[in-house]
Amino acid sequence: MRRLLEMRILTGIQPSGKLHLGNYFGAMRPMISLQDQGEEFFFIADYHALTTVRDPAALRESVRDVALDFLACGLDPSRTVFYRQSDVPEVQELAWLLSVITPMGLIERCHSYKDKLAHGKPATHGLFTYPVLMAADILMMQAEKVPVGKDQKQHLEVTRDIAIKFNNAYGEIFTVPEPLISETVAVIPGTDGQKMSKSYGNTIGLFDDLKRIRKQIMGIKTDCTSVEDPKDPDTSSIYALYRLFATPEEAGAMADRYRAGGMGWGDAKKALFEIYERTFAPFREKRAELEKRPDEVEDILRQGAARAKAHAAATLHRARAAVGLE
Ligand code: ADP
Ligand code: TRP
Q1: In whole angstroms, how far apart are CA 23 and each of 17, 53, 180, 308?
Q2: Residue-by-residue DSSP string for 20-32
Q3: What is the mean pLDDT of residues 177-191?
Q4: For residues 270-295, average pLDDT
Q5: How far from chain centre, in Å, is Cα 142?
Q6: Average pLDDT over the chain, rounded to whole?
Q7: How is the chain split into domains, by residue range?
Q8: Do residues 236 and 255 lie in contact, with contact meaning Cβ atoms separated by under 8 Å?
Q9: What are phi and psi of 176, to 5 degrees?
Q10: Backbone angles phi and psi of 3, in degrees to 5
Q11: Of 130, 135, 215, 295, whose CB has the highest number of CB atoms within 10 Å?
Q12: Distance 107 CA to ligand 1 centre (A)
């Protein structure tokens, strides 16, 4: 069996709003730590975002923000091929070659389309065929491992089915990818205790101004146990968040303070804010620096796209030849 170290890893994120701590601990941090473990491709899925974002200025701003956020948090563009999806439009042609062999039933079964309709998104053709474009993203780069959240598992199954179907029809063109779903990354709670999500309005920002972050943290819902009462760290979302930032020693010491009593919720929230501030200080500094040099960020994305395009061209050529377009 090959080690992860030699694997080609690919993942993408939609630029559709400001990132929050749930995104950081659930997706960004694991993805950034995989940089040392394989050949990594990471892209900003702006074609996908068009299925839900209708404001061009907001889309541009989100793309820029995601790029800054990831670079500030440690994405290293010399190791990771970091690109904007729409800079590699070859993916659209591949999506077509895949869509003509994709059975309707495969896409009709996808939950995410139905969920999005249930949340009031307009039923468009693009939203419906979203999984085929996602399959093209992955197959284009011949990715072997795709780190995603549990919500994307079905899209990976669709991608595998499409790859197998194409290979059976036309010969071995695509690597059949596998999802890399971290069971250890818990669902990060928001300020109301349920899953942190931009659709629930319960987020704590990643790079909002500090006053706002402080306010979000101080607004985390708590029960009415008094200062003197011992508290159970395992049922507290303040502790669940604290632990993600802390070293094991710090987390252990904080759990002891909860259990001992004498610490109010206000103090627990203050400790969470302080550890956020301490951890993010270098990232905030880096982000502020990068923000002053938008051309440099643009260059990084362009160079990433050039590397991605070389892989895209090779796959597309093989796929076009296989179906009889060349
Ligand atoms: P949101 O729920 O805010 O719309 P997205 O669905 O855009 O977030 O998520 C982008 C990435 O961040 C996905 O990989 C997802 O698994 C991860 N993520 C988002 N929220 C959380 C959370 N509360 N806990 C763990 N991971 C999360
Ligand atoms: N659908 C993913 C999400 O909403 C984003 C995405 C698009 C993606 N293309 C991808 C993720 C390819 C992994 C691989 O989170």
Answers
A1: 11, 19, 16, 24
A2: BHHHIIIIIHHHH
A3: 85
A4: 97
A5: 20
A6: 94
A7: 4-186+294-323, 208-288
A8: no
A9: -85, 115
A10: -80, 160
A11: 135
A12: 22
Does residue 198 carry a catalytic annotation? yes
Atom 2 of ligand 2: nearest residue by CA position: 13
Q: What is the pLDDT of residue 1?
A: 47
- CATH entry 3.30.450.20 includes domain 208-288: no
Q: Tell me: the pLDDT tens digits for 128-181? A: 999 999 999 999 999 999 998 888 999 999 999 999 999 999 999 999 999 998
Q: pLDDT for 11-20, tens place per residue?
A: 999 998 889 9
Distance CA 94, CA 229 (A): 61
**DSSP calls for 183-230:** SSSPPPB-TTSSB--GGGT---BSSS-HHHHHHHHHT-------TTS-
Please give all residues whose beta carbon lies within 6 A of any atom in ligand 1, as ranges: 13-14, 22-23, 26-27, 149, 187-188, 195-199
Beta-bridge mates of residue 12: 43
Burial 142-177 (b: 16+ CB within 10 A, else e): bbbbbbbbeebeebbebbbbbbebbbeebeebbbeb
Ligand 2 centre from 20 Cα, in Å? 17
- Answer for the pair 149, 27: CB distance below 8 angstroms, yes or no: yes
Q: Could you tell me the two tokens for 240?
A: 């669940």
